Amino acid sequence: MTATRAAVWIRVSTDDQDAANQLPELERFAAHHGYQIVERYQVSESAWNGGRDGGEYKSTLKRAMHAAWAGEFSVLIVWSIDRISRGGAEDVLRLVRQLRERRCLLLSVREPWLNSSPEVQDLLLSFAGWMAERESARRSERVRAAIARKKADGTWTGRGKDLGTRRKSGYFAREARKRAAVG
């Protein structure tokens, strides 16, 4: 008997995360269920971001959908549902339905309840999608609050990570050299 062909979806959204952390569990899950991993889709940007011209996330998702449609795999395994979508219940349900239209199942290592009948899956995905959206919104609120606090304290650098007080001596020296060269 041949193994069911599967793809794995790996996404990290920050430089502090490592995609390699998800891979062993995805591979164990696939082996335990008798799936043969034939493709790995790896994304290193936020599911919210999307970037210019669709971004890495959207283009990778599009490639995965085309491959599922072409029958290259019939199971897409994610480490966790929030690794493939943070767009809320409607977004997750739309994604699952698009995969079903392609005769492909979405399975999750971290949410075994997702790996059930389509009816139960729809109900539980609605809730999980809503939870992922809320968690993302709470994280954004915490980031905005931290930025506001740092701006009020005068410690905001505007560079994402707080790197401390900026040195200005190099900037002033460079500008002085420019003015001397021009004048």
Tell me the count of domains. Answer: 1
Percentage of residues assigned to helices: 40-55%
Q: Roughly what is the average pLDDT, rounded to an integer?
A: 82
Order of helices and strands: EHEHEHEHH
Q: What structural class do the secondary elements suggest?
A: alpha/beta
Total strand count, please? 4
Largest sheet: 4 strands, parallel
Quaternary structure: single chain
Named at the architecture level, the CATH assignment is: 3-Layer(aba) Sandwich
Supply Rg: 22 Å
The CATH class label is Alpha Beta
Strand order of the largest sheet: 2-1-3-4
Low-confidence stretches: none
The amount of beta strand, in percent, is 5-15%
Helix count from the secondary structure assignment: 5
CATH superfamily: Resolvase, N-terminal catalytic domain
Question: Could you say what the CATH topology is called?
Answer: Rossmann fold
Shape: elongated
Key words describing this protein structure:
alpha/beta, single chain, 49% helix, four-stranded parallel β-sheet, Rossmann fold
